[in-house]
Amino acid sequence: MEYGIFALLVLFLLIAYGIKAYYEQKKEERRFLEKLDENYGTRPTREYEYEEFENITHYFQKNKKNGFYIDDITWNDLDMDTIFMLVNHTQSSAGEQYLYRMLRMPSFDEAALLERERLITFFQSHRKERKALQVLFHKLGRLKNVSLSDYLNNLLELPEKSNLPHYGMIAAIAVSVILIFIIPQLGVLALLASIIFNVIHYFRNKKEMELYILTLSYILRMIKVVKEIDKCKIEAIKDYTKKMTEAEKKFRNFKRGSYLVIAG
Question: Which residues lie closer than 8 Å to 105 by C-beta, 6 or more apart?
Answer without folding.
Answer: 60, 63, 64, 67, 68, 69, 70
